[in-house]
Amino acid sequence: QVQLVESGGGLVQAGGSLRLSCAASGGIFSISAMGWYRQAPGKQRELVAGITSGGSTNYADSVKGRFTISRDNAKNTVYLQMNSLKFEDTAVYYCKTTTPWGANYWGLGTQVTVSS
Fold first, then answer.
1. What are the Cα distances from residue 66, in Å, to 59, 60, 69, 92?
2. Residue 1 pLDDT > 90, yes or no?
3. Is residue 27 scored above 90 in pLDDT?
């Protein structure tokens, strides 16, 4: 079974940067799509960024130009580099993987708080 563990969240001033990491286990990381989602209090969970097994990426309009998703297959890890952070980026950020056969697995999340 796949397990995902997020890290790197914290408190940062508006305009600052954070890098989130998601370490995966289960043996199929290199052939699985990965994504970062976030959920703020009182709001729906939304896709922030995704990356396919081949390296293609997509981003929510709200983070384009500020966030970058990447993966290191040798480390079984996906990253989310977040620059120029805004107060509205405050949320719990979740890592998700989708296997080639369509199964989804979620991490438990990491808190990102941006102060204004």
1. 10, 11, 10, 18
2. no
3. no
